[in-house]
Amino acid sequence: MKRRTFLKGSLTSGVLVVAASAGLLKPGKVLAAAYPEAAFKTEISPEEALNTALGVSGDMADSGDINIKAPLQAENGAVVPIKVETSLPAEAIAIVAVKNPAPLTTFVNLTGAGGFYSARIKMGQTSDVHAVVKSGGKLLKATQQIKVTVGGCGG
Amino acid sequence: MARLTKMKLKKIGDKHQALVLVNHPMETGRRKDSKTGELIPAHFIQKMEFKHNGNVVAEANLASGVSKNPLIGIEIVGAKAGDKVEVSWTDNNGESGGTDAAVS
Asked: What average pLDDT score do residues A105-116 get?
């Protein structure tokens, strides 16, 4: 009998948690911009992907105000930690692994947060990684080559 | 079942970093099951939204190029003790999750 009441209790609380999280997420979904699926497609150039994601085309100038912190050599391409820091007033920060099937790995739109973004990405092979910052309607970048000894795609 | 979402607020100098870890496979859809040889369907987080005291401060877009169990960090500007930081995410299968933390 005790076991039965316990099970019942845990079931109802489980349902409540689901309902609460669904309710919390709804307003966020309405406010958030649509997910730019096309920007993360495979077989598009990094420039095209950035244009789709951030709405800015043209050449990216190198900038000394962007600091990219990443390993020179990644032993495991499945987990490559990348940190991007900038002193520029950043509107968005993107991380691009040039030789990945889908070069744009992730980007963040900043609407109040500071010029910092960190993520762990997958890399198929040794490649240049661009840290791209959108600032004042322009794209600026810093580049570092990361050597990958074991690929992170397939596996 | 809800996936585990953890957030840590780290104070670095006068700035705060919000680090979020989600327990998620982040499948690309290009990987094959080693036993059956069939493709494992894509399953990855698409959106992650950060709120500071109820205002959206950052909106991250993720794709399958992000490692599994993603660890995402942003910087919260002007955080004071007691401020609330919330994070919520959704994936391509309509799953969602989130958590919150207070600045100490």
From this structure: 94
Yes or no, beta carbons of A25 and B98 under 8 Å apart: yes
Q: Cα torsion at A122, A50, A41, A100 (round to 10°)? A: -30
- In the predicted model, is pLDDT for residue B45 greater than 60? yes
**Chain pair A-B, CB pairs under 8 angstroms:** 136
Q: How many domains would you assign to chain A?
A: 1
User: What superfamily would CATH give domain B5-31+40-102?
Assistant: Immunoglobulins (2.60.40.10)
For residue A50, the domain's CATH number is: 2.60.40.2470
Contact B47 A21 (CB under 8 A): no
pLDDT, tens only, A46-102: 999 999 999 888 788 999 999 999 999 998 889 999 999 999 999 999 999 999 989
Give the separation between CA A65 and CA A140, rounded to whole angstroms.
9
CB-CB neighbors (< 8 A) of B29 in chain A: none
